[in-house]
Amino acid sequence: MMQMLLAHRFLAVYLTLFGCFGDVYAGAVLMNSNSIKN
Fold first, then answer.
1. How does DSSP assign 2-31, residue by residue?
2. CA nearest to 29, candidates 21, 18, 4
3. From which domain of life does this come (predicted)?
């Protein structure tokens, strides 16, 4: 039971970090594409 809780918590933290980095990466790509167009 304890292993399941730890695995679930680790997965939640991993997904949260992945989502944050994904947003930052997408924002950087959009900024670069906009600067190239202009």
1. HHHHHHHHHHHHHHHHHHHHHHHHHHHHHH
2. 21
3. Eukaryota
Give the model's pLDDT for residue 11.
Answer: 93
The span from the CA of 8 to the CA of 26, in Å, is: 26
- The DSSP call for residue 32 is H
pTM: 0.49
Taking the C-alpha atoms of residue 20 and residue 35, their distance in angstroms, rounded to an integer, is 23
Q: How many CA atoms lie within 13 A of 5 on its CB side?
A: 2
